[in-house]
Amino acid sequence: MKAVTFKNKTWDVAANLHLPSSFDGSKKYPAIVVAHPISSCKEQTAGIYASKLAELGYVCLAFDASTQGASGGLGKYLEDPATRVEDFRCAVDYLVAHGFVDENCIGVLGICGGGGYAVHAAMTERRFKAVGTVVGANYGRLCREGDLSADAAIKALEGISAQRTAEVRGAEPALTTYIPQSKTQLESYGITDVDVVEAVDYYTTQRGQKPGSPNKLNVVSTGAAFSWDAFHLAEKLLTQPLQIIVGGGQAGAFGSYRDGFELFNKARSEKKSILVVPGATHYDMYDKSDCVDQAVAKLKEFYAENL
């Protein structure tokens, strides 16, 4: 593995390039762009999957989303779908500029929110020849549902608009957190949803905590996501082979299980498959070895057949 950067417009996007152990720069290799979950970074679950796929002979590029992790950008801690999707196109630009990448054998893999972004990017980025998702989630849907209360989206958008006005008038950018900042805070809120509980365990403890994932989100940046949908036009534009992987254990608030089946039903892809990993929760698929190994075994078959 080596640290690299590529450009999105005027800034550098930070990435880790995972290479096969027997890498030979004079040869051509199939490649896979690997996208991290929302609030995550390239050193967490994306790095796990990229490393394992590199062991199978793929050149894998795991990157930090623009304005997040070690990447630059216009602002910090933004969650803007348009910029996130453009990152994927720029990642492909980086790969095809290198002679050791077979430009006709480039795939994409996204985990959680990165899966939704990967799907959306692949609809218009035709250099992606195969699309994989692991517990892929639709960030637009998550924003619109909010706390599941009546008019949750409208209430949130009113607040975002008011904050944007305040910032134009000189207020500091408003930052919030994706999840409670500790298990103690989680318990004080009385939250018991399995996805939130396990997110806190993954992101705020030694299990998965990394400096590039500080649990910070720019509030105003989320406004554009409310009218965005990761799967919009999948029935028309998503034609590449598609492998969806979801956990079959307790379903939580992030909704990746139902998103996986919605995507499967909508995608125009003639070759598409969905794997349900028995008993696995959303976060089991991030780093629990037995669950990750089942996912990688399926992805091994999928990419070998389609790249």
Tell me about this structure.
- This protein has 307 residues and is an alpha/beta fold.
- It has helices at 45-55, 81-96, 113-124, 139-145, 152-168, 183-189, 194-203, 234-237, 256-266, 284-287, 289-306, and strands at residues 2-8, 11-18, 29-35, 59-63, 101-111, 128-134, 175-176, 217-218, 242-247, 272-277.
- A hairpin with a 2-residue loop joins strand 1 (2-8) and strand 2.
- Helices cover 38% and strands 20% of the residues.
- The chain is globular.
- It is built from eleven helices and ten strands.
Which structural class fits the helix and strand makeup?
alpha/beta
End-to-end Cα distance? 22 Å
**How many distinct beta strands?**
10
Major sheet characteristics: 8 strands, mixed
Q: Helical segment tally?
A: 11
- Judging from the principal axes of the Cα atoms, what is the shape? globular
Cα gyration radius (Å): 19 Å
**What is the percentage of strand-forming residues?**
15-25%
- Helix content percent band: 25-40%
Task: Trace the largest sheet across and list its strands.
Answer: 1-2-4-3-5-6-9-10
Average predicted confidence as pLDDT: 97
Order of helices and strands: EEEHEHEHEHHEHHEHEHEHH
Contiguous runs where pLDDT drops below 50 for at least 5 residues: none
